[in-house]
Structures are given as structure tokens and as C-alpha cells.
Amino acid sequence: FAIVQPYDPPEVRFPVLHVDLYRLDDPSEAEELGLDDARHDSLLIVEWPERLGEAAWHDALWLSLDVAPDG
Q: What is the pLDDT of residue 7?
């Protein structure tokens, strides 16, 4: 599986990066992915964002999905 899966126009209206950080063991590994630069001109959808560390992207919209007890 790719850590970063890009979707570029014309497939989408603007660049989108689907980022799966599950396999990162340390936040410093994310630096190699260039995500800080990509934030300026792309939509980033990040799974496992907590792997970026506590200091990452406080201005980002963070969503959490939970399964309700009733399903």
C-alpha cells in the first residue's frame, strides 16, 4: 500500500493526497513525505494523523469516526 496516494486534475478539481500514516513508527518519518509543503496547494486526507505527533497542524480540521453502541 502507498503511504501517499495522489489524485490530480482532471480526475479531481484540485490536488488531493490520501495519506495513510499507519506504518510510521516515529513522527520524524513524516518529514520525508513533504506533507507540510503539500498543505499549501492540496487537500490532505490523513489516516492515523496522531502519528504526526502532538505539534502537528493545529490549524487543520481533525475528524474522528466512532461506532455508536447501537451500530
A: 94
